[in-house]
Structures are given as structure tokens and as C-alpha cells.
Design a protein that fits this description.
The complex is a heterodimer of chains A (113) and B (113). Chain A is mainly beta. Chain A is built from no helices and twelve strands. In chain B, strands 2, 4, 5, 6, 9, 10 and 11 form a seven-stranded mixed sheet that branches. Chain B has a four-stranded antiparallel sheet with strand order 1-3-8-7, with no helix packed on it. Classes of the chains: A mainly beta (113), B mainly beta (113).
Chain lengths: 113, 113
Amino acid sequence: AQSVSQHNHHVILSEAASLELGCNYSYGGTVNLFWYVQYPGQHLQLLLKYFSGDPLVKGIKGFEAEFIKSKFSFNLRKPSVQWSDTAEYFCAVNIYNFNKFYFGSGTKLNVKP
Amino acid sequence: DAGVTQSPTHLIKTRGQHVTLRCSPISGHKSVSWYQQVLGQGPQFIFQYYEKEERGRGNFPDRFSARQFPNYSSELNVNALLLGDSALYLCASSPAGAGNEQFFGPGTRLTVL
């Protein structure tokens, strides 16, 4: 079965620290990749997506992610986090040919002011 | 524009009962997907419907079924409820089919006693 792995379940950072959240997937074919964020009390919302082209994609609020095909990875980064980035972050993979979507288990980020 | 709406917000059922959850997509969106999110886990893909046809199915038993109506709204039905069906059920809509950005609703919290 296909899977999406997020290595960090809970991350605690101080404001201005740099962030990198890992995401690996297990499917070798064509995929579309996403990072979603869920702020406390809010719906899941899209941070960024990768379909094709430049493997370094930029999203909202200063987030970016890099697709490394050889490593089956799509890590999320932000150079300097803010308290308002406190949320849960989910990596998701769409296996295009099979119309299936897989989410990772999520990473809870807590940014201390 | 209104976002994705789901009803009811909360629901309590007993084992063996049947439940119907409803979803209205964003206006103009033709695709609806359903997910189950158990506490502490990421969303698990159940179904995708596009233009009223099932286009994708996750690894859920036949007790789970869904349909999409001509106005693109959707219902998720679960028969013979089990305790393990207790979860947050999320609906997501997208403008087109596979691989597109999905917009999530607030979810329906189902508790099975």
C-alpha cells in the first residue's frame, strides 16, 4: 500500500528559528504533492502544491517546499517562523493515475513567542 | 463566496445504525472527495466523485458508500456502524478532477456508542 511519512510528530521552535518538516512518500509513479495547514479551530487549507516544473515551490506566508524525486521527498521549509505559524501541518500525495489521495499523519508545530 | 459546507456538525449514533452525511461544494466545483480523520491521524481518503461519477475509492469496506447529485452536492452513507467509525468526516471540493487543489469543509464529528 502507498504511504506518506511525516517524520516529526511534534516540533517546538522559538520565533525566528528556521523550520524544516520532512515528508516522504512510497509511490514511484507520477504524483502531485501538497502541504496543507490547519490552524487551531480552522479548516485545512492549502499552503503550497507541486505538479511539475521547478522542484522548488513557494507557497503562502513565506513557506516553500522542495521536491526531490530521487528521495521521494517533499520537505517543507520556512527560514524564520512566527508565533502565528503554530498549527498542524499535513503532507499529501495525489497518485494521479489512480485518483487516490494520501495524507501523512501530520506534524504539530508549536512556536514559542 | 461560501466555502464547503457540511451537515450536521456533530452526530451521535449507536452501533449497527446507519448515518448520512452531507456536503455542499464551493459554487462551480464539480469534484467532491470524502475523508475520514481519526484523532491523531491524517485524513484517510474514502471516495472521490467528479461529474456525479465515482472516480476514486480508498480502502474502506462496502459499508461506506457515497453519491453526487446533479447540483454537485454529495452524501456519504455508512451502514452498520462500528465503534471504530467514530471520527471526523471531511468533505473537500475542487474545480476539476484528479490532482487539483482541494478546499476542505469543517467536517462532521461522528461518535458511535
